[in-house]
Design a protein that fits this description.
This protein has 14 helices and 16 strands. Strand 1, helix 1 and strand 2 form a beta-alpha-beta unit. The protein is globular, with a radius of gyration of 23 Å. The two termini are about 15 Å apart.
């Protein structure tokens, strides 16, 4: 086994929620002392990542706390932790009038970290606070990991649980606004909005969840200027219906074999739900629950059609905003300080006085128009098509032919066991992809329940392989 030890080494690159959940469940599945689990994550704690390592109090989980959990089968695990630890004492706005809890995202990050701390203290999981610089396969199924702190680790199993790549701003914005003080190409970075002044005219490029967070954050910090949010379709994330409803409809018996057939069935089911007094939320809850089966039944060409034509509509109904964020958006709209456009950006010019002139091309062939802004914020979501160039070690693995993009442009190609498929079509038996980067194969892997289930799935595959392998003796290799 690796590093001169009789125990196999499992390395997990990325310690946000996906990596933390995988390490947690793997440690719980393996007998004590059966393997060494190492998680590479430069942040101080495991479990936060881009989504939950935020100091912004307005950033809230976008589903009720009673549906957020690290432990499948115990839906209220997180909510109990909130009340047992007093985590809501400084957050009186977390609970809605009907009793649902939408905690701050930072609270969920602390919750996940608290579950891993006993395992770290007991030596079941090792947290290495360094970025990974390079990964190479030194022999069949064994990986050498070089970190920025100069250390090296040889691993018998490797899991990539890396963060989403940064947004990909429209090229016209980057060309025209490079160096502008109030051009913000990545709104997810800490303090990204600090340069925006209270009366600035702000253009938000994108109208999804991140855009909603940006608008709510601006409102909270006292911004009162006009905010314009633009996307090609002008769709904004929807809110919740918090009245109890069972998921409605069925989309797998029989399965749809084309995007068009699936769309027809969704529309028919929405009409049936409305006639039964059930809202669209219950239909999309069923779609989410059956998402993996729906996806696997579709040919690749039909998956591509869904990504290209239907994904924006799915996203705004599937990824709903917390009531507190929705209230901030509704206030801005009522006050006339928030407008939405369905348009694409046709041109951008930086004026001598610092103003930003943007030309829009509306949908459906209407005449282009120009507006001027003081700040531009990009919230277009992760650039998944560029994932393999987003970090040096991923780029190295791609150049070596170990990794390749999936066939629908959502992440990395994997097989049915979530193992990486190389450019030559061969499967890397000991290299796993966990979380959203595997959704090209598995479908719905963006919502937290599905990410948790997938982390358990991958952890189980790894644990079963370790437990089943006989140990004829350790193979000495260089120590870290």
């Amino acid at each position: 086994m690796s590093n001169g030890s009789a125990r196999p080494v499992v390395a997990v690159i990325g310690g946000g929620f996906t990596g933390a959940a995988l390490a947690y469940h793997l440690a719980c599945l393996l007998p004590l002392g059966e393997a060494t689990i190492v998680v590479y994550e430069p942040r101080a704690v495991l479990g936060g990542g881009v989504a939950y390592d935020t100091d912004e109090p307005v950033h809230r989980i976008n589903v009720p706390a009673a549906r957020m959990t690290l432990v499948p089968g115990d839906d209220e695990h997180f909510q109990r932790w909130l009340f047992e630890t007093g985590a809501l004492l400084d957050d009186p706005d977390a609970t809605t009038t009907d009793g649902h809890v939408f905690a701050r995202r930072s609270a969920f990050g602390r919750y996940v970290s608290s579950q891993l701390q006993p395992l770290i203290a007991a030596g079941r999981i090792e947290h290495r606070r360094s970025r990974v610089r390079a990964v190479t396969e030194v022999e069949d199924g064994v990986w050498r990991i070089a970190a920025d702190d100069g250390s090296e680790l040889w691993a018998d199993r490797l899991v990539l649980a890396t963060s989403h790549p940064s947004p990909q701003p429209p090229a016209a914005l980057d060309r025209a606004l490079a160096g502008h003080d109030r051009y913000i190409p990545d709104a997810t970075l800490p303090g990204a909005l600090s340069q925006i002044r209270s009366d600035d005219r702000v253009l938000v490029v994108g109208t999804g969840l991140t855009a909603a967070d940006v608008i709510a954050t601006l409102d909270t910090i006292g911004h009162r200027g006009l905010v314009t949010a633009v996307s090609r379709r002008g769709l904004r994330s929807r809110g919740h219906n918090l009245n109890p409803q069972d998921p409605f409809g069925d989309f797998v018996d029989p399965p749809a074999r084309s995007a068009h057939a699936l769309l027809r069935r969704v529309r028919r089911t929405l009409a049936e739900a409305e006639a039964s007094g059930v809202t669209w939320h219950a239909v999309f809850d069923r779609l989410r629950g059956q998402g993996g089966d729906i996806w696997r039944a579709l040919p690749v060409v039909e998956r591509r059609r869904i990504v290209r034509f239907l994904r924006p509509y799915w996203d705004v109904h599937r990824f709903r905003i917390a009531p507190q964020v929705e209230a901030a958006i509704d206030r801005r709209k009522a006050a006339g300080t928030l407008v939405l456009h369905a348009a694409s950006i046709a041109g951008v010019k930086q004026q001598a006085n610092g103003e930003i002139a943007v030309t829009f091309r509306p949908r459906h062939g209407r005449e282009p128009f120009e507006r001027r802004y003081d700040a531009v914020v990009v919230t277009t979501g992760p650039g998944h098509r560029s994932i393999l160039s987003s970090q040096p070690f991923l780029e190295g693995l791609a150049l070596a032919g170990v990794l390749q993009p999936d066939s629908v442009g959502l992440g990395i190609a994997v097989d049915g066991q979530s193992r990486a498929i190389g450019s030559d079509g061969r499967t890397a038996q000991t290299l796993f992809i966990a979380g959203p980067l595997a959704r090209g194969t598995f479908g719905e892997l963006m919502g937290l329940p599905q990410v948790t289930d997938h982390a358990v799935f991958v952890a189980t595959r790894i644990a079963d392989g370790i437990i089943d392998v006989a140990k004829p003796g350790a193979l000495a290799r260089p120590a870290t």
